[in-house]
Amino acid sequence: MSDKTTDPMAEIDAMKTVAEALSTLDEASCSRILRWAADRFGVEIQAVPQQIVTNGQTQSDNHIEGTPRTQDFSDIADLFATIDPSSDPEKALVISYWFQVIENQSDFDSQSVNKELKNLGHGASNITSAMNSLIGRKPALVMQTKKSGTSQQARKKYKLTHEGVKKAEEMMYN
Fold it and tell me: Which CATH number among 2.30.29.30, 3.90.1150.10, 3.40.50.800, 1.10.10.10 corresponds to the domain 70-173?
């Protein structure tokens, strides 16, 4: 590339040509082409995280290109349909992800998780067993944070572990 000044209209024409050429390709192809062009012309490129607002809070947008962002889901049914979990533990994981990550709740209870599953027509046959299955995995996907009462049926509060969030997002992206 030369250091001479370029006509701004020539730049606009070049951008239009590039945009038209890339418009029929998928995001992965566009990414490869743009990386090639950057290498070819000695230009360093880097992703610039954008600021997004979800539930009134500003967060950095660091998602993987070509994958759904959590805020792309209009409601819990949209998230559930996108992931399409098959087992009760997977269903509980998806709903737990909605509460903790999208709704930004510090913790959640299994009754609320099962209520949402029932509203979606996918109630768990035994929500406690589903949550215990997530807790018992190595690494654990869920952890119990509180228990009110002494009986086995006492109200329990849960939180997704880092691995639980990661697993839900892997399910979302695959």
Answer: 1.10.10.10
